[in-house]
Hints:
Blueprint: H1 2-9, H2 18-29, H3 36-46, E1 53-57, E2 60-64, H4 69-77, E3 87-89, E4 92-94, H5 100-108, E5 118-122, H6 128-135, E6 140-144, H7 148-158, E7 167-170, E8 183-189, H8 198-207, E9 209-221, E10 229-230, E11 245-246, H9 248-257, E12 261-270, H10 289-292, E13 293-294, E14 297-301, E15 309-316
Parallel strand pairs: 2-3, 5-6, 5-8, 6-7, 8-9
Antiparallel strand pairs: 1-2, 3-4, 9-15, 10-11, 12-15, 13-14
Helix pairs in contact: 1-2, 3-4, 3-7
The structure holds S-adenosylmethionine (SAM).
Amino acid sequence: MLKEFKKHCDSTSLSAVCTQLTELSNQAFCVNNGNIPKWQSALDDVQNTQPGKLSFKPPYIAIDTKADVSGLTRSLKKLMPWRKGPYQIGALQLNSEWRGDMKWDRVKNHLRPLNGKTVLDVGCGNGYFTYLMSLAGAKIALGVEPFLLFNYQFQAIRSLIKEPIKAFVLPLKLEQLPAQPLFDTVFSMGVLYHQKDHKLHLQQLMDVMKNDAELVLETLIIDQQHGDQIIPEDRYARMRNVWRLPSTNTLQSWLEAAGFKHIKLVDVTKTTPEEQRATHWIGDNTQSIKDFLDPENNNLTIEGLPAPKRAIFICQK
Ligand SMILES: C[S@@+](CC[C@H](N)C(=O)[O-])C[C@H]1O[C@@H](n2cnc3c(N)ncnc32)[C@H](O)[C@@H]1O
C-alpha cells in the first residue's frame, strides 16, 4: 500500500512530503508488537479473496465480491475489535460498534464539495470515513491513525477492492505531518477530546491547511447549563483519555482564538444506542454505550457526568 501511496502522491500537492511520510510509516510498522503475526495472517488470508467494486450502500461501505462468508469472517475476526464501519463484503455484513453512516449523514451536506480535493482525515480509525471521502471524489483522501490494528483493518478492506482507490491510511499522528499548507479539507472527528493540549491540536490542524481550506471538527461537547467546560477527574463514559469537554460557546471561542474564520455550528446530536452498540465484531469486551450510562438516568454517564453529545463545527483557515 505504501508503494501505491507514493505513486499516487506524485500527482498531488503531497508530492514534496511523500517520501518523508512513507519513511515515517515504515518505521511505525516496524515496532515490536506481539499481535502483528496474527494481524498479518488476517491480511494474508484476505489477499486470496477475489476483489470487488467499492460503493456506499448506507449504512454499509460495500464491496461487491463473491467471497466465501465463513472464511472471510474467520480472517476478519482476527482483527477485532471493529469499532468503525459498518462494511458489507459480498454477503458478509461486518457490523461494527459504530454506525459511521449516521455521523456522515450529519456532516456531508455542510461540506464544500470534496471533488478534486486533497483531503486529510485525522484519527481516521480503520478508514471508514476516508473511503467515503474518496467516494465523494477527493483527488486523494489521506487518513492518519497511530493505532496499528486500525491500519491493518484498513489494509484488509483495501485489499478486497478491485479498482485503484484514492484512499490511504498511514500509521501516523497529526503532529508527525510537516507543518505545511498541504490540504484543502481537513477532518478532525472524535479526536479533540483525546488531546491533552486542545490548543496545540487546533494549531496543528491549521498548520497543515492551505489558505482558505476547510476544517470539519466533530467532538464531544456539553450543554451550556453544565458550565463552560468539564475536565473529567477520572474516566468519562468509561474512557480513560478524555481531557476536556467544552460547551459549544467555549469550543467556538477556542476556534476563534486559533484563528479560524466563518465558524459555523452545523449539528449537535446526542449519541444513541442505535449509533453505538455492542455487536459480535467487537470481541470479548462486549460493553458499549448502554454500559457507559447511568442505568437509572440515561442523561448521565456512569460517572455522573452529562451523557455523550457531539457537535460539528465547520470553519475556514
Ligand atoms: C474516537 S476515534 C475517532 C475515529 C473516527 N475519526 C470517527 O470519527 O469515528 C479517535 C481516533 O483518533 C486517534 N488519534 C488520537 N490522537 C491522535 C493524533 N494526535 N493524531 C492522529 N490520530 C489520533 C486514535 O488512535 C483513535 O483511533
